[in-house]
Amino acid sequence: MRITKQYIKDLNYKIISAAIEVHKQLDPGLLESIYEECLFEELKFKGLYPKRQVSVPVIYKGKQVKNDLKIDLLVNDIIIVELKSVNEMHPIFEAQLITYLKLAEKPKGLLINYNVTKLIDGVIPIVNDIFANLPER
Q1: Which domain holds residue 36?
Q2: What is the mean pLDDT of the chain?
Q3: Are 54 and 85 in contact (CB under 8 A)?
Q4: FRET label pair with 107: which of 15, 49, 88, 130, CA 20 to 30 Å apart?
């Protein structure tokens, strides 16, 4: 399989569609862990390949530190999905996802806050240079 911008855009659409379905079924107000579990199942139902709580090693000055990062979901080994269930999104959440993308060497991430009335209002897509350097098709 060739990874292209179009492939990632299509995958992104499927992930957001799955997230919307979970939001429709559960509504806002639950714990992040509940949304994570349900989104994991919905992504599998849609034929995608999610992984939960994926460890990402942190290398500092050439040495791996003791604690790894844990990303909520990694879909098809390409898109990182970080979930929140908060009243207000903070810039640090975006910074965290940007760091995860860098350390995991992934091209795209989705920051999804389930504590909103309309889920699409809680979705923040983030891409990096890896994505920018991919072919269109």
Answers
A1: 5-132
A2: 96
A3: no
A4: 88
Ranges under pLDDT 70 in the chain: none
pLDDT in tens, 45-83: 999 999 999 999 998 999 999 999 999 999 999 999 999
- 110 found inside a domain: yes
Amino acid letter for position 124: I
DSSP lists the bridge partners of residue 74 as 51, 80
Domain assignment present for 38: yes
Q: Which amino acid is at 85?
A: S
Flag whether 100 is in a domain. yes
d(CA 60, CA 65): 7
Establish if 18 belongs to a structural domain. yes
**Number of domains within the chain:** 1
Token readout for 112 is 């999804």
Report how far apart the first and last C-alpha atoms of the chain are (Å, whole number): 12
